[in-house]
Amino acid sequence: MSLIIDVRKQLREHVLEVALEVPAGVTVVVGPSGAGKTTLLRLVAGLLRPDAGEIVLDGRTLTGPTTFVAPHLRNVGMVFQEYALFPHLSVAANVAFGLRARRISAPERTLRVASVLERLEIDQLARERTGELSGGQRQRVALARALVIEPETLLLDEPLSALDPQTRGRVRSELQAILRDVSVPTLFVTHDEADRAAFPGRVAVFEDGRVSGTVRT
Amino acid sequence: MIRAAVALAAALLAGFIAFPIAGLIFHQSPAAFVVALQAPSAQAALRLSLLTTLCSLALTVGLGTPLAYILARRVFPGRALVDALVDLPIVVPPAVAGLALLLAFGRAGTLGPALHALGINLSFTTAAVVLAQTFVASPFFVRAARSGFATVDQTLEAASATLGMGPLRTFALVTIPLAAPALTGGIVLCWARALGEFGATIMFAGNLSGVSQTLPLAVYLDLEGGDVAGATALSVVLIAVSLAVVAGIRSVERR
User: Fold this and answer.
1) What is the pLDDT of residue B255?
2) Between B161, B165, B178, which is nearest A88 by CB?
3) CATH number for the domain including A44?
4) Which of A78, B56, B117, B203 has the fewest other C-beta atoms within 10 Å?
């Protein structure tokens, strides 16, 4: 399993150039704000089109010179920076959303949602509205929502930056434990050096809008 | 001294609005009110108003929702112009709107001969009532829907897409529910405005009982014909609806 990103995209102030091969497991991409970290993830998710280049996931071209797979057909799990939980739905309905999209039957949906909520230890929150959750809880719901669809790649956009400093350390180590079991190519973008230290191994760093690295295990 | 003057001014205006409305409501006994409402012409006007306002509301929501969405989300040449045009009927005098509709779609109007060739005659029909109501009332829905869509966080729609929902399902399951309070407010205002429509209707659709004589037109005709009881009873119905609309919108706004 691998995710190959080889794209160029003109941003407001500079050209984002990415040449990355992301194997299974977590790759941390570090860069300052404005470097294009969110843009990189949005390109992979299909929420943006690059000016040139291609994105290939497990041999399937998602974005290329003549191909563009729409975001809802990509099977990408994305955790947004502010989590983007649906405020009009309960925690369980948020997590079930991607399964509804795949027209999975209600009984199976219930089972899979229950299982992922339990795995992330938020099963007691199932009926809550998302507005009433703490930052750490919101992050877990977002993660559960992305994981339950069994994505072929996982994209995490600064998943710890919305938390206050006291909870960040605790949530970081919980995230480490959860991501240890994730077997798909996972991009974890961050501006925080502490995140980089917490997920040792594969790291790619933005330099002048350029990220490159053929990171292999 | 100043405080008393301010209070007096406020009381005068509030009283000026309350007094005629109260007078109308208490003009006749409840029994006379019921009798007046049972008159065949009153019944016909009630039925026609209900039917035409529901039709114009459906037309407005069906066509106005895509328009409001485009105005809220897309940038295109002439957008400011379309935006202003959509609001125009709010400030155009209804009689002028009726004349414009007559000149455009009436028998002798611009599209009249073409419509006639197709076997369609719009002016002085029930369809004309619906068009007149849609013309004057649709801006109330489109304005509300446009600002409702503009406030929906687009990251949530992006999240829906990454979770596998196509654009239409995302619209139905994320955008609409999140814009629902604004949409509901717009629907209520639009319906109330259509229900009260008078000027454009009488110009473009006439005042024919059972065909184009809606509640406000029936009030006018009853009064012209000396049937004060009938005019008052129908007016009370319209006022009750207006009060319910205002109260409903206030309660939505408070939430």
Assistant:
1) 67
2) B178
3) 3.40.50.300
4) B117
